[in-house]
UniProtKB/TrEMBL annotation, chain A:
The keyword ATP-binding does not apply. InterPro entries: DUF202. The chain crosses the membrane at residues 21-38, 44-63, 84-102. It is found in: Endomembrane system. Keywords: Membrane, Transmembrane, Transmembrane helix. Residues 7-69 form the DUF202 domain. Pfam families: DUF202 (PF02656). This is DUF202 domain-containing protein. It comes from the Bacteria. It is a multi-pass membrane protein. It comes from Streptomyces gelaticus.
UniProtKB/TrEMBL annotation, chain B:
It holds the Pfam family DUF202. Keywords: Cell membrane, Membrane, Transmembrane, Transmembrane helix. This is Membrane protein. It is found in: Cell membrane. It comes from Streptomyces gelaticus. It is a multi-pass membrane protein. PANTHER family: DUF202 DOMAIN-CONTAINING PROTEIN (PTHR34187:SF2), FGR18P (PTHR34187). InterPro entries: DUF202, IM_YidH-like. Residues 27-93 form the DUF202 domain. The chain crosses the membrane at residues 36-57, 63-84, 105-128.
Length: 103, 131
C-alpha cells in the first residue's frame, strides 16, 4: 500500500471492513443453520445439512477473503460479477436450507 | 421487461459491462460495492430472523411459526437477488453517465418487515400458542 497515491476517504479500507462485517453476519446465519440442523439429533440428514451449510459459508468466506486481499492495493479493481453472484448465491442457499429444515 | 432480461444477461457476462461507456472513478465503484454488501447483510439478517423465529419461538403454533419464518426467508432471498441486480444496474449507469436507477424495492421491503412486526405483536398480545 503506497501512502502517496492513497485517497483520503480511505475507500479501500472501508470496503474491506464492509466485507468483514458481511462475513461475520454470514457466520452468525451459518451457525444458526447448524444449530437448526443438529436440533433433532445427529442423524445422516443432519450431517448432510451441516455439511451443506458449511459449504455455503466457505463459499462466502472465499469470495470475501479474495476481495479483502484485493483491497490491499491503492486502486482496487472492480468487484467481479462472479464474486457478487457467489456471495448472493451462498446467501440464498442458506435461506433455502432454512426453508427445507422447516418441514 | 426487455431491460430486465438485458440486466440478467449482464449478471453472467460481466465483461460486457466494460464494453460500454467509460470506467468510472474507482471510488464510486467501491461505494457501489459497499451498497451491495449492505443489501447482502440485510438479506442475511432477514434469513437469520427466519431461523430465529423457527428456533426460539417453539411455543407458537406450527402454522404461525412457519408462516412468519417463510415470510422472512422469502424477503431475504429477494433482497439478495435484488442486491446483485441493483449493483449491476448502478455500475452500468455510472459507465454510461446516466442517472442511477431508482427503485420501489426499499418501500416494499419496509412494508413486508412492518407486516411481520405487526403479526408478531398480534401473536404476543393474543398468545396463539400451540393448542
Amino acid at each position: 500500500m503506497t501512502t502517496a497515491g492513497r485517497d483520503p476517504g480511505l475507500q479501500p479500507e472501508r470496503t474491506r471492513l464492509a466485507w468483514r462485517r458481511t462475513t461475520l453476519s454470514c457466520t452468525v446465519v451459518a451457525l444458526l443453520a447448524v444449530r437448526q440442523a443438529l436440533h433433532g439429533g445427529a442423524g445422516p440428514a443432519a450431517i448432510v445439512a451441516v455439511s451443506l451449510s458449511a459449504l455455503a459459508w466457505l463459499g462466502f468466506l472465499r469470495v470475501a477473503h479474495l476481495r479483502v486481499l484485493g483491497m490491499g492495493t491503492a486502486r482496487p479493481r472492480l468487484l467481479s460479477a462472479r464474486g457478487a453472484l457467489t456471495a448472493a448465491a451462498c446467501t440464498v442457499a442458506l435461506a433455502v436450507f432454512a426453508t427445507a429444515m422447516l418441514f | 421487461m426487455n431491460e430486465f432480461v438485458q440486466g440478467l444477461r449482464l449478471w453472467f457476462a460481466p465483461e460486457r459491462i466494460r464494453e460500454e461507456g467509460d470506467t468510472p472513478d474507482y471510488r464510486f465503484s467501491l461505494a457501489n460495492e459497499r451498497t451491495f454488501l449492505a443489501w447482502i447483510r440485510t438479506a442475511l439478517a432477514l434469513i437469520g430472523g427466519g431461523f430465529a423465529v423457527d428456533q426460539f419461538l417453539p411455543e407458537l403454533a406450527w402454522g404461525v411459526r412457519a408462516g412468519l419464518a417463510l415470510a422472512l426467508l422469502a424477503a431475504g432471498v429477494l433482497c439478495a437477488l435484488r442486491a446483485v441486480n441493483h449493483w449491476v444496474r448502478c455500475e452500468r449507469a455510472m459507465r454510461r453517465g446516466e442517472d442511477l436507477p431508482v427503485s420501489r424495492f426499499p418501500t416494499l421491503l419496509a412494508l413486508a418487515v412492518a407486516v411481520v412486526a405487526v403479526a408478531m405483536v398480534v401473536v404476543v398480545l393474543f398468545g396463539w400458542e400451540g393448542r
